[in-house]
Amino acid sequence: MAMPRREEVVEQDVLTGETEAYAASQWQLMWWKFRKHHLAMAAGMVIVALYVVAVFCEFLAPYTLNHRQVAYAFAPPQRLQFVSDEGVHFWPFVYGIKGVRHPETLRKFYIEDREQRYAVRLLVRGAPYRFWGLFETDIHLFGVDDGGTLFLLGTDHLGRDLLSRIIYGSRISLTIGLVGVTLSFVFGLVIGVVSGYYGGWIDNLIQRGIEILRSFPSIPLWMALAAALPSSWSPLQIYMGITVVLSFIGWTGLARQVRGKILSLREEDFATAALLAGASRWRIMTRHLLPSFMSHIIVSLTLAVPGMILGETSLSFLGLGLRPPVTSWGVLLKEAQNVQAVAFQPWLLTPVIFVIITVLAFNFIGDGLRDAADPYSR
Amino acid sequence: MLILIIKRLLWMIPTMVIISFISFSIIQLPPGDYLTSYIAALGETGETVDEAQAAALRARYNLDQPFMVQYWRWLKGMVRGDLGMSFEWNRPVTELIGERILLTSIISIVTLLVTWALAIPVGIYSAVKQYSLPDYCFTFLGFIGLATPNFLLALVFMYIGYSVFGVSAGGLFSPEYQNAAWSFGKFLDLLGHLWIPVIVIGTSGTAGLIRVMRGNLLDELRKQYVMTARAKGVRYWVLLMRYPVRVALNPLVSTVGWVLPGIVSGATITSVVLGLPTTGPLLLRALMNQDMYLAGSMVMMLSLLTLVGTLISDILLLWLDPRIRYEEGEH
Question: What is the ipTM of this complex?
Answer without folding.
Answer: 0.71
